[in-house]
Fold this sequence. Notes:
The protein has helices spanning 10-24, 56-72, 93-105, 123-127, 130-136, 142-147, 156-164, 168-174, 177-191, 203-218, and strands spanning 2-7, 29-34, 80-87, 113-118. It is of the alpha/beta class and 220 residues long. The mean pLDDT is 92.
Amino acid sequence: MHFEILVEDVSGKRALDILVPKLIGDNHTFKVHPYKGVGRIPKNLGGKADANKRILFDQLPRLLRGYGNTFANYPAGYPAAVILICDLDDKCLNAFHGELVAILDACNPRPTTRFCIAIEEGEAWFLGDISALKKAYPKANDTILKRYVNDSICGTWEYLADAVFPGGSQALLAEGWQKVGAEKSAWSEKISPHMDVENNASPSFCYFRENIRNLARENV
């Protein structure tokens, strides 16, 4: 099976390029497409978005319609699916998931699609594997890590920064958003290789793992 994976930023791509092969093995293919943030789900699902503006939700109706048409023309025996991975942030999970499903339901043909939402943010998946995190950052603050509740709404990237970045999230923010983005990419590159995908305490990571694996098993 082939997977087209949509993520909201480059740091997400760097993590998934490492993690996805651990999940699906060598019998399947994938490509991760990073965007420059998520933006907002458009009210007019049939409208045209500027393809040059790589904002994920702005493009999502067009992307899913396009994948639906493309997948329908693939030869028999070559199944494909879209996996959308994004942060929940401060949204209501049920309402947000419903909005995403509405975009998919408006497609004809409808591509096989799974929506995998990191709760609260993608860094929750790193905090779900403290052993991997400690291998990447041996001096990480154990007191902070022990207080973390998996998939809690707590300002997740800031929480991780408080544990691993000298001076914590406030020091990182003081260096500007470009530095924050660079540090997030560094976390992806350093922590992901150590992660045990079979043992992760983040429920949203496990949901992603089981969704992509179930599709892969169904289409061996």
